[in-house]
Amino acid sequence: MPAPFVDEPRATHKDVPLIIRALPEESPRKLNILLAEDNAVNRVLAQKLLQKQGHTVTSVNNGIEAVQLWEQNQSSQFDIILMDVQMPEMDGLQATARIRERELATGAHIPIIAVTAHAMKGDRERCLAAGMDGYITKPINPAELAKAILATVPTGAKIVPGPSDPVVEGSSGSALLARFDGDGELLKELAGIFLQECPKMLDEIRAALAAADAKALEIAAHTLKGSVGNFAMPGPWETAQRLELLAQSGQLAGAPEIFRALEQQIAQFNQILARHTAEPAHQRL
Ligand code: MN
Description:
Elements: E1 32-36, H1 40-52, E2 56-60, H2 63-72, E3 80-84, H3 92-103, E4 112-117, H4 123-129, E5 134-138, H5 142-152, H6 173-179, H7 184-210, H8 214-228, H9 234-249, H10 255-278
Parallel strand pairs: 1-2, 1-3, 3-4, 4-5
The structure holds manganese (II) ion (MN).
């Protein structure tokens, strides 16, 4: 969370060191960023955090759109691509491989940062093998995001260390707010988007269960998990993950029971979010 700006009184003794404060949100260089993320909640959150760090962001929903937009804009060049790994149509690994292949003709190299769900073992290695330059895990931590960008795009400027405290898991108000860079307005906006998207995500899980479609269930549970993960509430996240892993195993026995538990947790979770969207943003959580 950025420290409140304090106007330092002028030093009157010559042994008082001069303190230069850097604003944590201020990135040394404003970048033109292409963001590929299929999950609406994650996409808006990443876009807003990047914009707060001073960057210009263009968002797309899948790997095919990312490759297309990158190709169309090679003259006005994006500085960096933030690439979700799991996406429909074309995933982030395939999209990166496609871009690296086309770069062989020009010798160019656009930095690509993978954004991936943190439960996936071996992800980092797969991302680097696919030609990605950096790696961050979801849910996105604002300080980690800024650090990964600074590490991937050499700016020549001194790196301003962000807040080093890890975001604490749990449903306390401060942990929740930390997910949104201490920005109550942003939390309110994302909670609204989640509440809007949630019925659709639950419907997709219902439909997959009704059709006994393990692959569709895995994708639908993963999508819900990814959205919930932004709000620092481990309960529904873990249940969605149980459903995802069960579907991944192809064995659907027990899935309806897990889904019923998930529905209950989500109903409670939605009530909490609804309270946040109703509260004035300046109010303490
Ligand atoms: Mn995704």
